[in-house]
Amino acid sequence: MYIIRSGEVQNVLIRWSCSCFLILSKCIRRYPPSKRNWIIAGVSCIYLFYVVSQVAHVLPQDRFSDRHKFKRTRGIFTPKFDNAFQDATGSPMAQNADVSSTASPKYNVVYITLKSKRRKPAIIRGTVRPKLRKKTVSKNKRIRPNTLNEVDKGSERKTRQEYESEISPRPLRNVYHSLNINTHNSDTDSHYSSIRIYSERAPPWLSKDDIEALRFLADCKITGIKEVSFTGRRNLLLFESLADAPLNSPGKYNHVGDDSVCQGRCGLIKRPLDMSEVFAFHLDRILGLNRSVPAASRKFSFFHDSQPSPVVLWDPSLPPTDNEVQSSVRMTWGSYQHSLKHRCWHRGVVPKAESGCSSIHHYEWSRLALFDFLLQVYNRLDRNCCGFRPRKEDTCVELGLHQDCADQDSIELVHIIHRKHDPRRLVLIDNKGYFDRDEDNLDFKLLEGIKELPEEAVSVLRSQRLREKLLQSLFLDQLYWESQGGRQGIEKLIDVIERRAKVLLTYINAHGIRVVPMDRST
C-alpha cells in the first residue's frame, strides 16, 4: 500500500498552483488591457472574500454575540448587563461555580476615550484685555525712598508713560521714574512728598544739597511759626522745624551762624503772588549760575485760603539787612557802572583803594544781569523803573519812584547781598519775575555796562534745550506744577522765557558782547 506523506501533498499542491498560475497568466496576456484589468479585479475580490470568511471562523463567537451588552456613555464604555445577571446569591454564574472555575475567566473590560490635547490655545476674537488696577497704598504704610523694586511694575510702566507724555516735548533720553516719600506733615493735607524724583539721580543741574533743601521746604514737620520784623522792610513770616535741624552737617545750606532768629531750621513763607520765585530757582540752576536760594511750593491750611505759597530756605549765613535797600553792599547806579569799567577783582587782582570797587567780583554782575533780564526782575538794578514803561501794578508806580529818573546815578541798588563767609559772590533773593511783559517793553537797562556774559548760560540758551530742561526740573515740584495749570500753563511761561532768550542772543551779536567761561567759584 502506497502511503502519501503530508510533505509530498504540499509539494504537489504548490506545483499545481504554480502551473495553474502560469496557465492563467498566459491566458490573461492574450486579452486586451481593458479585459485584463477586469479579470485581475475579480480575482482579487474573490480572494478577499475568502480571507474574510476564514478570519470570521477563527475569532471567538462570544465577542460578537455579547456586543449588544455594552453601551457608551460620555466616552466611557461600560458593560450593560441583562436581567439574568443578578447578585452573587442568585445568579446562574454562582450556581455553576464549579464549571466556570475550570474554564478561562472572563473580565468586564471598560474602554475610556481620551480627548486629544490642543497644541495651541483657541483664539478668542473680540476680547478686551482687563485693565490693571493700580495698587493703593494705605496711609499708615510707610514707603522707603529709593526702593524701586518694591513698586508694582504695572504701575511703574504706567507712571513712566504718563511722565513722558506729560513733560517731554520730544522723546527724552533719560526718563525718570516717580518716588513718593511718606513723611508725617500735620500742616499739609497730603501724606506724600510733593518733590517728585525720577530714577536714582535727580537732574544734573540740581545738587544733593538742593534736593535735600527742596524736600525740607515741601515736607518737613513744622513745629512753630513766628513773625520777624526788620527795619525798612515788611515783616517776615518764618516756619520752624526743630525735628529737621541739621546736626553738625557740613552742607551748603547748613552754615551755623550767630543768627538767633531761627533756632532749628526755617523757611520763609511768601505770598502766593510771588510763586515765580520757584521758577526762578530752577532757571538759575539750569543756566549754571547757582546764585539763588532754594524755593519750593507748599500749602498752609491756616492762611492764604490753603493756596500754594512759595517757601524759601532761610540761610543764616546771610548778613542782616536792616537798611532801606535791603543790601549788605550799598551801591548806587553810578558806582555800579564805575565798578564794571574797572573790572573789580578780575583775575584775582586786588583793586586799588581809589577805584571805588566793592567786595563783589566782576563776573557776578554779568550773571545778575542775564538772570534779571530773562525774568525781567527790575527791583535790583532798576528800582525806579527807568528802563521800561511800568504799569499801575508795579511797585515803582505804587511808591511813586518812577518819577525820579532824572538823576539815575544816585539811585541805589536793591538786594545786593553776599554771604558772610563769601564776600565775592552774590546771593540772589526776592527773585520775583514778570511773565506778562511783551518783547517791545523789555528793560534793556539791566544789560547796560555789561561786556561779558557767562558761556555756560549762553550755551544753554543756544542749545534749544532750555524748554526740555525746564520741563524736567519744574515737574519735580508737583504742587507748583499743578498750581500753574499743569503742562499747558508751564509751557506758556517757558514760551515767554524762550522769546526773551532770542532777544538776548540778538542783543549779544548786535553789541559785540563776549561770551567767556566763568568759573562757578569766582
UniProtKB/TrEMBL annotation:
Keywords: Golgi apparatus, Membrane, Transmembrane, Transmembrane helix
Predominant place of localization: membrane
Residue ranges of the region described as Disordered: 144-169
UniProt subcellular location: Endomembrane system; Golgi apparatus
GO cellular component terms listed in the entry, alphabetical order: Golgi apparatus
Record's keyword annotation contains Disulfide bond: no
A Pfam family matched in the record: FAM198
TM stretches of this protein: 38-59
Biased composition (Basic and acidic residues): 150-163
Family label: Belongs to the GASK family.
Protein name: Golgi associated kinase 1B
